[in-house]
């Protein structure tokens, strides 16, 4: 059994030594502590003593060679008895050690499949990867960042199917959600996220459709409704008593609009892509706001209704809207929209057309103002009438004429008008 | 290009700077006639004379204090602490005077001073000759702390340290002195203080280290390459100022970070690097940040088996990196 003799550590920071001279040659017998060779280091010159007795079997590092501390420099054949026994003992110890090592299992780790690291979550979100579908190569099946990176690099990430929008018409194919040019807004800490309700989504979609599809033009006229104000003031108490509902200005304006629509049927039409469809029925959509949404229920065949009938229809639809009891029938079939923006104090607005109608009118607040009438300054009740029109269907001239007829009609009301 | 040992690079840098600038001088215990106990100043006294190579009394507080005074006066002292362990009596001078001189005098005075100190174990030095002391200073603003790991970096960074206008602690791992050899250009070059270096590109685990343990990491990386584990290795080279950008870039390479140093775990500089990563690279992380460091025991044991147990080595580093790679 040959024992390795190694380069000894001959001082602090000494990491290597150079054999300057061998004092023994292979075959020489050696007694313990007898010098084997001379070694030179940066700091000292020293002799390397034998650590055992025996015969020098082999010189590994020749004279002049420099080797690291711990490197074998020669081998000595040991001569003492009982070597085998010692060796055997050593071997069996070694074996035992190995066995012990093999038997101590690693602590069992539970499944790591759903333990996602920050990097994995970030990458999965950035690349729309469904982590449930990914095989993890980490400990306990954990998905590693490298797993995701390889998936992305291979271009095979399983993207989630986008939630389909309820498409209600061909014209709505360019919905709000499919707007590619809109960058995602940046969210800061403290910002609140409000998930979209179905109604909000529909409103968003319809507004985008209308604004994108219909080239909006806008015009406004001022009407003197001093007579109408007097008329309503005269009638309203009796009306309330008799009919059980308040008399508002709305039915008068709707009546004026409806009568003018009969004169200008072009306003009561819809865009049909390659043609314009003039609607025979006059169904007036009225805008009714609730706290978080806007509905446009429809007064069917408004031209067949009197002021009283219109008042009842408006009241009825408003009640139904606020109670959340509108039916699909209440909401469909409108041909023209009257918007009562004056109800919240507005004096001018640019309404968005209720797609696919041709135009929309806003009735603003009635405000007392000094005006010149018959070369005298007078206090009159004035109202702005705002009209947005689809310029594909209508031009300014016809829209202006229509709006003027509405103005004439509302100005014609007086304290003695019969309703 | 000549191959030099780590300590020869120290001597070369000192010699070149002393030749170039007559204001540069060295001082310390046995640095003159003896040439330093590690031979770092070997031959300097013959070339520059005893006025520029000063053998001092065994009084580290005086070595630091004299250096501070001389530097404020316009000299460029390079002080040697014979062992980093011996720096303790000089700590008051270093922290309360040198580190604060520029700040306290509102920029009127400054200390262009270098303190060299051999640190670290693995040389059978026992309790008083093996300590890692860098963490005692990393939390002191006003000091620069350089911990090179290769002869090339030693020369470039020591020359930068001597030319620096503020106090620099230059920690040399004494086990590296004659163990680590490498090419060192003969020409006059410097390396910027505060710049880390990628020693090896990899994709599975990022190892951040400095000094002797960096070499264990490189050896481990070589070993693990055979198993298909690719290790990215960053040598910090300078602890203060820390090259944050390089650290964050290295983290982004793999998302699995192991910080290795010989200084003990608690309060070691790895904690600071770890905090930086947690604060600024959270979404890059794919595994908990691991630190591999010396154990929290009072000192390096003298007993060889215990010293071996205390010291990191290639096997321990390889094992730890493999564990992290498998996570």
Q: What is the element layout, followed by pairings?
A:
The complex is a heterodimer of chains A (419) and B (327).
Chain A: E1 2-6, E2 16-22, E3 29-30, E4 35-40, E5 45-49, E6 54-59, E7 66-68, E8 72-78, H1 83-103, H2 118-126, H3 145-154, H4 198-213, E9 216-224, H5 226-243, H6 250-263, E10 269-271, E11 276-278, E12 284-286, E13 288-289, E14 294-295, E15 298-299, H7 307-322, H8 328-331, E16 336-339, E17 359-373, E18 376-390, H9 396-412
Parallel strand pairs in A: 12-16, 16-17
Antiparallel strand pairs in A: 1-8, 2-4, 2-7, 3-6, 4-5, 6-8, 9-18, 10-11, 12-15, 13-14, 17-18
Helix pairs in contact in A: 6-7, 6-9
Chain B: E1 3-5, H1 6-20, E2 24-28, H2 44-48, E3 53-55, H3 60-72, E4 76-80, H4 91-98, H5 101-104, E5 114-119, E6 144-146, H6 151-163, E7 168-173, H7 176-179, E8 181-183, E9 197-200, E10 205-209, H8 212-225, E11 231-235, E12 238-240, H9 244-254, E13 257-264, H10 269-280, E14 290-294, H11 304-310, H12 314-326
Parallel strand pairs in B: 2-3, 2-4, 4-5, 5-7, 6-7, 10-11, 10-13, 13-14
Antiparallel strand pairs in B: 1-8, 6-12, 9-11
Pfam families (chain B): Transket_pyr, Transketolase_C
Protein name (chain B): 2-oxoisovalerate dehydrogenase E1 component beta subunit
Domain Transketolase-like pyrimidine-binding (chain B): 4-179
Describe the structure.
The complex is a heterodimer of chains A (419) and B (327). By secondary structure, chain A is α+β, with helices and mostly antiparallel strands. Chain A folds into 3 domains: 2-83, OB fold (Dihydrolipoamide Acetyltransferase, E2P), CATH 2.40.50; 118-154, Irregular (Dihydrolipoamide Transferase); 202-412, Chloramphenicol Acetyltransferase (2-Layer Sandwich), CATH 3.30.559.10. Chain A is 30% helix and 24% strand. Chain A contains 9 helices and 18 strands. In chain A, the strands form 5 sheets. Chain A has a 6-stranded mixed beta sheet. A 4-stranded antiparallel beta sheet of chain A has the order 1-8-6-3, with no helix packed on it. In chain A, strands 5-4-2-7 form a 4-stranded antiparallel beta sheet, with no helix packed on it. In chain A, a hairpin with a 4-residue loop joins β13 and β14. Chain A is rod-shaped, with a radius of gyration of 48 Å. Mean pLDDT of chain A is 82; it is low at 82-88, 94-108 and 158-180. By secondary structure, chain B is of the alpha/beta class. Chain B has 2 domains: 3-183, Thiamin diphosphate (ThDP)-binding fold, Pyr/PP domains (Rossmann fold), CATH 3.40.50.970; 197-326, Rossmann fold. Chain B has helices at residues 6-20, 44-48, 60-72, 91-98, 101-104, 151-163, 176-179, 212-225, 244-254, 269-280, 304-310, 314-326; strands at 3-5, 24-28, 53-55, 76-80, 114-119, 144-146, 168-173, 181-183, 197-200, 205-209, 231-235, 238-240, 257-264, 290-294. In chain B, strands 3-2-4-5-7-6-12 form a 7-stranded mixed beta sheet, with helices on both faces. In chain B, α8 (212-225) links the parallel β10 and β11 (231-235). In chain B, α3 runs parallel beside α4, α8 packs across α12 and α9 (244-254) crosses α10. Classes of the chains: A alpha+beta (419), B alpha/beta (327). Chain A: Residues 115-152 form the Peripheral subunit-binding (PSBD) domain. Chain A: Residues 87-104 have a biased composition (Basic and acidic residues). Chain A: Its cofactor is (R)-lipoate. Chain A: Pfam families: 2-oxoacid_dh, Biotin_lipoyl, E3_binding. Chain A: Its EC number is 2.3.1.-.
